[in-house]
Amino acid sequence: MAAIVEKSALYVPTLKELCEVLQDGLKKNFAEVQVSVVDCPDLTQEPFTFAAAGLCGKPRIADVGGVPYLLPLPQMDKIYNLNTVAEQVELPGAFLLGASTVSFKAVGVNAELMPNVFAKGNGKPEVNHSYSARIDPATGGFILEKYGEKYKTCDFALLANLYISEGKPGKVVEVRSCRRTGQSNFVSCMREALAKQFGDKPVAMGGTFLIQKGKAKIHVMGFDLRVEHTHCFSHHGEGGHYHSDTTPETVEYLGYFLPADFLYRIDRPKKT
Q: What whole-number distance in Å separates Cα of residue 205 and Cα of residue 212?
């Protein structure tokens, strides 16, 4: 049975307007803030190593499944595919980036997924640079793996919150923030600034950021529309669901973001 796809248009502020809103909002939470419009760096290069070069080209957000499919018990039949999602959001061959859950069939356990895929389409094969993080039963620690490389699948389970575009270079909003002085984390602070400025207008923003200095609190799982969901990976063996930094006095963030044109709600749970 095909999943139901609901499409909604979003309010799209100009990049200049976004800069002003984010600058004002982040100033309340960070000692140093610089927000500007720049050319998107080549995201295929270090330290990003993404599947696509940029964030631009018909940006959209997809919210797939949901937490009700995870709790109280995981619904094992809720398996999706990123290539299919690209088609469902009317952008076959798209670049997909975000936060999700691994396929049980591939990994055998519940685990965090960091989707990073250039979907197949337009005569091109998929490029899968996704990572996953799971609990190590032997040590109680966690294991970060190159999901696409090891499991060779674009499947995911239960839920996903995705930023999707053509993966092209172009103008983006660059955000630099140093030394957190408030309680909200980096992502929450930006979301709160957007909510305060635009009120009832539906605005969605996606992208990527680096923690250039400092440490962060993340979790890895052992067992309705999400307004905020961020997964991360590193090149030193750590990754999972981002909560906040734990070194506010030294932390430095660098991020690149774009507002989305549309929201696609895919296979919405009947109960929230």
A: 21
| Cα–Cα distance for residue pair 130/4, rounded to 1 Å | 26
- Cβ of 135: how many Cβ atoms within 10 Å? 18
Is residue 107 within 8 Å of residue 221, measured between CB atoms? Answer: no
**Mean per-residue pLDDT, 125-144:** 87
Alpha-carbon distance of 258 to 170, in angstroms, equals: 10
Round to whole Å and give the CA distance between 40 and 165: 13
**DSSP 8-state secondary structure symbol assigned to residue 46:** T
Q: What angle do CA 241, 215, 63 make, to 5 degrees?
A: 20
Q: 53, 66 in Cβ contact below 8 A? A: no
**E runs forming strands in the chain:** 5-9, 30-39, 60-65, 79-81, 95-102, 112-114, 116-118, 127-128, 131-135, 142-145, 155-165, 171-180, 205-213, 216-219, 231-233, 239-245, 252-259, 262-266
> Would you call 9 exposed, middle or buried from its count of C-beta atoms within 10 A (0-12, 13-18, 19+)?
exposed
Q: Name 139's Cβ contacts closer than 8 Å, sequence gap at least 6.
A: none
Per-residue pLDDT reduced to its tens digit, 214-224: 776 554 557 44
